[in-house]
Amino acid sequence: MSPVTTTAPLATYLVRHADDNLIIGQRLAEYISEAPELEEDLAIGNLSLDHIGVAMHLYQYAASLGGAGITADTLAFLRTEREFSNVLLVEQPHVGFGDVIARQFFFAAYQTLLWEALVSSCDETLSGIAAKALKEATYHLRHASGWVVRLGDGTDESHTRMQAAVDGFWRFTGELFESDALVDEMVLAGIGVDPARLQTTWETRVSTVLSEATLTHPSDPYQATGGRTGMHTEHLGYLLAEMQWMQRTFPNMEW
Amino acid sequence: MQTTAGEIRFQELIDADEKVEPRDWMPDGYRKTLIRQIAQHAHSEVIGMQPEANWITRAPTLQRKMTLIAKVQDEAGHGLYLYSAAETLGISRDEMQQLLHDGKQKYSSIFNYPTLSWADMGTIGWLVDGAAIVNQIALQRTSYGPYARAMVKICKEESFHARQGYSILLALSRGTEEQRAMLQDSIDRWWWPALMMFGPHDSDSANTPQSIEWKIKRVTNDELRQLYIDQTVPQAHYLGCTVPDPDLRFDVDTGHWSIGLIDWDEFWDTVKGNGRLNRERITHKVKAWDDGAWVREAATAYAHKQRTELEKTA
Ligand SMILES: [Fe+2]
Ligand SMILES: [Fe+2]
Fold first, then answer.
1. Hey, which of A200, A227, B33, B219 would disulfide with A87, CB 3.0 to 4.6 Å?
2. Which DSSP state fits B20?
3. CA-to-CA distance for B23 and B202, rounded, in angstroms?
4. What per-residue confidence (pLDDT) applies to A72?
């Protein structure tokens, strides 16, 4: 069987961000046709498309650095849970619209800062991908923030539901800002960004929106970790089982 | 009975092949027929999202996944566009939606069939969007202006969908034996339902004569169906596939493909609500709507608060 994954440090770095985007894109895709109104079905579809598009570009770039036989699709469809390196936040399932928005809000607030920093990457391809993704993430953040405020400051019921949603995802936000040896290497090479550097601004932006939404800032001291090393929650396996079903059932075919 | 200026004007527009616009006088029956037809069309776009959304999360490649999401998104857009066209006739989107949920307005029966393999994403694009195009090209000349204009806009995207669908099928036709079997099975399941999309035979279609007279409908069901069969059969053959009709033959005298008997019992059963997935489709739709109630209420409450704030500061 042909190799499915890459090992070069830059490729690994690209794949981790691609995984973040693919997995949240897949989660959003699950929600299409279930939104509270038609306009939101359209918006959710847009978000999903943007994320999967970014993932595809990053995978393609990573694949071009790897060995023969590696493609964006082998990276997406033929790796296992332990090989996926996305943060835990993006693989978390949602129950309703409040969850979809809370997850998106935390993640978009992070991604706007990430892409903004990666625009100055000395790697031109990555910088190009970041520039396009930044525009999209900026819209994602505006969309999600708008809903956090409307739902937080809407009715008593929506306030309660939105509070529960942000509380529920909070423990997965700390991981967004973790560094490791690979990050250090990428920073040193002028290619990557240290996410720890983004946390203060993220915290300020998130707090501003939460208080405008009359929501209480979550205070759960427990922060989950492990996604970057493939130590996922139990949810990812099911997501992959569904997403990879065709490629696993009908291997080595063109579609 | 006296003829009013409005009636005369309406008939003049129809006779001159000009468009009737929302502010023009129109017969009650004309308005009602259009509301029913446009609402049904809008509902079809929206319910039609479900059978395709069923495969988004399982699409076999990233590119196919993205194309499918974009297509489903287009259908949501078509729904919005058509609801707006219907609203110009004096009915609200919420009212239409309620009628759909209560089973008082219909949607195209084709969406009551299940999507059981990836090949169905190709077949739906090719056969179902393909049938929609044949229908909608004729409707571009419909007499009601907002509907005609909606059709022009929508048709462009539909032909894109049909091409994408066919490209999925082409890939299967060039693939392995398993893929070709998947393809043939899909065509076998969708062929007859697709032909039924054009509605009953002209001889059994109660609304056709009046609709033709009002130029809402420009071409009859049977004429459209024949046009569709003639263009579609060779495309099936090009895929190396057959259509599931032992009576299918090419009539050299007429230059048309002639088909066997359509199973109208199945058609009417499905229209009456007893198709494969009628209940599931509506249940899904109603559930999404009910689950979203708190969101819509919150948005309204928030907008109200904002307005009140603004008035205070003004
Ligand atoms: Fe459509
Ligand atoms: Fe379509």
1. A227
2. B
3. 32
4. 97
Residue A254, CB half-sphere, CA atoms under 13 Å: how many? Answer: 9
Give the pLDDT score at A3.
58
State the pLDDT at residue B1: 59
- Kindly state whether B66 is in contact with chain A, defined as any CB-CB distance less than 8 angstroms: yes
Among A107, A122, A139, A123, residue whose Cα is nearest residue A62: A123
* Count of A-B CB contacts under 8 Å: 138
**What is the C-alpha separation between B126 and A211, in angstroms, rounded?**
50
Threshold 0.90, pTM exceeds:
yes
CA distance B122 to B171: 10
Angle between helices B62-87 and A38-65 (to 10 degrees): 160
Q: Which two tokens stand for residue B70?
A: 């974009």
Strands B256-258 and B249-251: antiparallel
Other residues' Cβ atoms within 10 Å of the Cβ of residue B196: 22
Helix (H) or strand (E) holding A144: helix A124-152
Amino acid at site B125: G
Nearest by Cα to B183 from B236, B129, B112, B128: B236
Residue B103: Cβ-neighbour burial (10 angstroms; 0-12, 13-18, 19+): exposed
Q: What is the ipTM of this complex?
A: 0.97
Q: Compute, in degrees rounded to 10, the torsion defined by CA atoms B60, B66, B70, B73.
A: 80
> pLDDT tens digit string along A58-116?
999 999 998 789 999 999 999 999 999 999 999 999 999 999 999 999 999 999 999 99
Other CB atoms within 10 A of residue B261 CB: 7
Q: Check if the beta carbon of residue B230 is closer than 8 Å to that of residue B197.
A: no
8 Å CB contact of A245 and B58: yes
The pLDDT score that the predictor gives to residue B309 is: 87
Q: In A, which residues are within 8 Å of B62 by CB distance?
A: 22, 52, 55-56, 59, 72-73, 76
Which whole number is the average pLDDT over A126-141?
98
Taking the CA of residue A158 and the nearest CA in chain B, the distance in Å comes to 6
Under the banding of pLDDT at 50, 70 and 90, the label for residue A2 is: very low
CATH architecture of the domain formed by A9-217+228-249: Up-down Bundle (1.20)
CA of B79 to the centre of ligand 1 (A): 7
Give yes or no for a contact between B93 and B87, defined as CB atoms under 8 angstroms apart: yes
pLDDT tens, residue by residue, B59-112 = 999 999 999 999 999 999 999 999 999 999 999 999 999 999 999 999 999 999
Domain boundaries, chain A: 9-217+228-249
Locus of tokens 């250090």:
A184
Q: Identify the CA nearest to B129 among candidates B20, B227, B45.
A: B45
B73–A45 CB contact, under 8 Å:
yes
CA distances from B55 to A167, B22, B67, B114, B163 (A): 32, 39, 12, 11, 18
